[in-house]
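Figure S7 source data.
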Amino acid sequence: MNYDIAIIGAGTSGLSFAKSLENTGLNVVIIEKQTEEKLANPDYDGREFAITHLSHKLLNDLDMWNRIDPDAISLIKNAKVLNGNSDYALHFSHTEAGEDNLGFMTSNHLIRKASYEAVKDGNTDIITGTEVTDIATNNDDGTLTLSNGKTMTVKLIVAADSRFSKTREMMNIPTENLNFNRTCVVCKMNYEGEEQDTAMECFQYGRTLAVLPLTNKRCSVVMTIDTDKARDILDATPEVLAEDIEKRIDGHLGKMKLTTKLFSYPLMGIYAKKFYAKRYALIGDTAVGMHPVTAHGFNMGLRSADTLVGEIKTALRQGIDFGSITVLSQYHHKHRKFTRPLYLGTNALVKLYTNETAPAKLIRHGLLKLGNRLKPAKHVITNLLTETDDKAA
Ligand SMILES: Cc1cc2nc3c(=O)[nH]c(=O)nc-3n(C[C@H](O)[C@H](O)[C@H](O)COP(=O)(O)OP(=O)(O)OC[C@H]3O[C@@H](n4cnc5c(N)ncnc54)[C@H](O)[C@@H]3O)c2cc1C
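Tokens for the predicted flavin-adenine dinucleotide complex:
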């Protein structure tokens, strides 16, 4: 096995990283523990992603976006954020952003499928049904041991093996871990009201509810609740659950009907102290595992892959060792500069909007009002959510 770069994990981050390395002349391999069948036809997992303009551009450039059925892609034109029982909303509009839409929505399993197909059509080798069980690196190279007993030695190992990465642990990279003690329950519903293109994020008391527009009068429903209360949602009958959501959004979408299973995700924030070690780099959730409320995890994963590939290509052009500490630390600084404020900001937002003391309720409401009035602040938030200003990057 003679490769320059080995990628651990064929999630969206690992696959987009591999695809971006095509045409660099480097020999690249991905090792993934799931079977080939699962990668080719991933199961629906309830996750519908809000995709920024930058990610849309990257997915287009990587020959992935065109592989997703257009009927499965919806446009978010507007967004509103509500607090508690009030119907006052902080509004974001695509016209203010100067774009046709604020962002795009599609399913994680469709992006995974498209990403896998795009990589398979290229020159990267994919070893499936095989886990990385051990890892060791030194100044010159890195060696992986696989569950099939084989080993491989490469110039750079890139870990995209999830926020609970075992290889990051084996490499002794410490992480900041934040257990939110909250669980996200996601599903899809149909609705009978008028077709909508506005995403709603409702920071209600006791739970957070996001209703995100999909095509053909369907929506993604994302409920976040204290983990010890998640069973209240998971055990509800489909009818009771749909009625509850209808009420929680004041009948805005008319009669609703549950159309999928419920999927639950316990929420944990992870931030790696360093995004590299000798001959080893972290991308995607392995570097930064976000709370989903600001819909950044997948988008950040694509960006991390793009940033690291940018550094590798520069090194190749300059004749520098692409797996050296100098190159990897450049990537670390760039990605940290972008992700750190978003990670801390998202966690602070979660802390405030799950705090139900009287002063916090006042601040929560006040901040929405301020957000509507302060145009520069609104512009900054809009750009963070849409990444419109960065899309030419
Ligand atoms: C409810 C919910 C909603 C979300 N909504 C959004 C959203 O709207 N927008 C957004 O941007 N993000 C969102 N996210 C975040 C998004 O899901 C993640 O950021 C993204 O899927 C991470 O992709 P990844 O490729 O980095 O990791 P993963 O998808 O976790 O992939 C890791 C891969 O590594 C493989 N693997 C693990 N260990 C090994 C090993 N030892 N050897 C070989 N292979 C291994 C796994 O099998 C897997 O295929 C959401 C998350 C949740 C939970």
